[in-house]
Amino acid sequence: MIDSIKTFLIAAKTLVENEALKVYIVATHNLLSVESLKALDESPYVHQVLVTNTVPLRLAVKKVVVIDITPTLAEAIRRTHNGESISYLFENVPQ
């Protein structure tokens, strides 16, 4: 879950200063404010931010990529409703 980005930006800067080629931030839930999203987009140290669509994105920015997990959630709900195992989803991603 991403809420505040101060620590992420410090870590990204440190990684780049120590020869990291690209820094990616990955989180399940995006709780970022508009100001935080702008700061991420403007950071020269962050290459890309990957989040799922569990929380709507408040502002479209170039560096933020939203991964749609709707099919996976729908299949998990269907399997739970029908008494089927959801462990199938650990190795198989619905299309």
Q: Which terms summarize this structure?
A:
95 residues, alpha/beta, Rossmann fold, 14% strand, elongated
Task: Outline the secondary-structure elements.
Elements (H helix, E strand, L loop, with lengths): L5 H12 L6 E4 L6 H9 L5 E5 L11 E4 L2 H12 L14
Parallel strand pairs: 1-2, 2-3
Can you characterise this structure?
This protein is an alpha/beta fold and 95 residues long. It has a domain at 6-68: Rossmann fold. The protein contains three helices and three strands, in the order H-E-H-E-E-H. It has a three-stranded parallel β-sheet. Strand 1 (24-27), helix 2 and strand 2 (48-52) form a beta-alpha-beta unit. The model has no long low-confidence stretch (mean pLDDT 92).
- Which radius of gyration do the C-alpha atoms yield? 16 Å
Query: What CATH first level of the domain at 6-68 would be assigned?
Result: Alpha Beta
For the biggest sheet, the summary is: 3 strands, parallel
Percent helix? 25-40%
- Report how far apart the termini are: 25 Å
CATH topology of the domain at 6-68: Rossmann fold
Order of helices and strands: HEHEEH
Spatial strand order of the main sheet:
1-2-3
> How many strand elements?
3
Sheet-strand content, in percent, reads 5-15%
Poorly predicted regions: none
In short:
By secondary structure, the protein is α/β, with parallel strands linked by helices. Helix content is 35%, strand content 14%. It has a domain at 6-68: Rossmann fold (3-Layer(aba) Sandwich), CATH 3.40.50.2020.
